[in-house]
What we know:
The longest helix is centred in the C-terminal third of the chain and has 17 residues, at 140-156. This protein is mostly helical. The N and C termini lie far apart (47 Å). The radius of gyration is 17 Å and the shape is globular. The protein has a 3-stranded mixed β-sheet, sandwiched between helices. It has one domain (12-182): Orthogonal Bundle (Arc Repressor Mutant, subunit A). Helices cover 45% and strands 9% of the residues.
Amino acid sequence: MTPPPIWNAGDDTDLRRIRRHCARLVRDIAVPVPFDAERLCQEVGDRIGRPITLMPTAMPADGPSGLVITGARAHYLCYDSGTRPLHQQHIIAHELGHLIAGHTSEQVADVDVPAGALLSTLDPEMVRRALARDGGYDSRQEREAEIIADLLLQRAHSWAPEQTWHVPLDAADVVARIERSLG
């Protein structure tokens, strides 16, 4: 099965406008190089005024690979624990994109439990609604989250963020260590 296109190729003007908007949203975010999900979540959580707790979760094969549940005191970012690390990074960056862009649900889980027990204590109807959210890439919010994820990951996997070229993903950790050692 071929995945749906990320955006309508015939709507270049709107896409450029969305990309500029997303670039402004992430401009001042300190993205850790190399990628560090915990540090990035802390940075974004500080920026939006609510902590973000990462929750590796076994996600159903026919469901989304990530989702954010807004709790009374924190956002809980669930991502598929059964996929490869690079895919996990993309899922996390995509879900952070929703938070950065202000796509939070009006629905707040009234829970104050350890993150590991969160999913089992939520109202089943709320979980169904979260899992049933439109996962297609044809909505503006999904486009924004994808673009933000792309911008964050480009910076996280860059040797020198101010450069116009990027280090291959499989070499980013080594290059970052060399850069740190050389100052």
